[in-house]
Amino acid sequence: MTALGAGDKLKEGDKAPNFTLPTDNNKEISLSGLKGKKVIVYFYPKDSTPGCTKEACEFRDNLNSFQKLGTEIIGLSKDSVKKHDNFKEKNDLNFPLASDEAGAICEKYGVWVEKNMYGRKYMGIERATFLIGENGKILKIWRKVKVAGHVEDILSTIEDIEQAAA
After folding, report:
1. Which of 25, 67, 117, 134 has the least CB density, counted as fewest CB within 10 Å?
2. How many domains does the chain have?
3. Which domain holds residue 111?
4. pTM of the predicted model as reported, rounded to 2 decimal places
């Protein structure tokens, strides 16, 4: 599989890059193993930071709504499985957190980007969410996500897709 070239980014309608990654509790998750379901893959910078905690808790609090819409949730960052275990336990999270310590999946999804904070440039994960359809194609991409209202926006989008398909 070829990597995206410089400046290339995944677009809606593209096939989502498959992955198999370790998750919390020494498990493993594979995108291809969820074929036939809608999947939310949300990339976040770091476990236990204020924005990432708020986002994870909003997914947690809305898990039943996602499940009613036949949608699985996967949180993904470069944190270790051990950090994921602690983050998940501390916040009572009820969905898998995948660990991409090497960053290969972040690269494939185009979320490993140069960031700038207080004039300091560094590489990090851009907060982004990908809604992947039952056929493995990307239905919707949210980049540079602002946490407030994001989960509600995703739910609304999935409901609209469901209504359009009915």
Report:
1. 117
2. 1
3. 20-28+37-165
4. 0.92
